[in-house]
Every structure is written in structure tokens, then in C-alpha cells.
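note to self: dont lose this again. the chain is below, predicted strucutre after it. 131 aa total, dont forget to put it in the shared folder this time
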Amino acid sequence: MATLRQDIELDTDPDTAWDALRDFGALHERLVRGFVTACESDGRERVITFSTGLTVRELLVGVDDEHRRLSYAIVDGFTHYQGTAQVLPRPTGCRFVWLVDLLPDERAGDVARLMAHGATAIRRTLGGADL
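---
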């Protein structure tokens, strides 16, 4: 199983970053503007459209407010796909840690490229430390 990681330093208050992450249906407006251009959600499931036109259906697995952690899954097109994002406080700002475990391994390169673009969008939307 491939494991991918993006570790993003943000100059944003952890509560602000968590509020954007946990808003499952507003991904395209609050977290990754420009990277995801549309999101239709019923609160437990969302269909997102990337700027490339690719669409994906994601299921909300869990939200942990105490630890500022959200988990989601993609069931179509993968044998296994589990994504987790967590906001961790730091002395100034926060760290946004995004992990994906997936099968088949052969899809890891494509997903890693998408995650890199997503990380750039998160920095741009929430105020990355390296901007």
C-alpha cells in the first residue's frame, strides 16, 4: 500500500484552519480555492470537480473536533483510498498534515501530483508560511 504525505506550514490560527477543513461541503471555497472548482455535498458524501475537470466522489469517514482531524474515503476507482487531514498548533500558526493510503500502488504517482497541487492551493487559500 502506498502512503503519501503533505506537511504544510501555515501562518493561520489553528482554529481558522480547522474550521475550513471541517466544512466538508465547502472544500472548493474555504480550503483549496482554484484547485477544486465545484463541490456538491449532502454532509456525508461529496462529489468534487478539480480544475482539470476530473470528478471524484468522497465519503466522510469521521470528524474529530478535539484533535482537529478529518478522515474521508474514495470508493470508486481504487481498491483502497483513505485520506486524513489534521491541523496541529505550533508556536505561530499551524501545521496541516495530509495523509493518503491507497491501493493500487500504481496510482500513487498521479495522486501525489494532485496532492502537491492541493497543498499549494491550501497555502494560497489559508496563508502558507512559505509564501
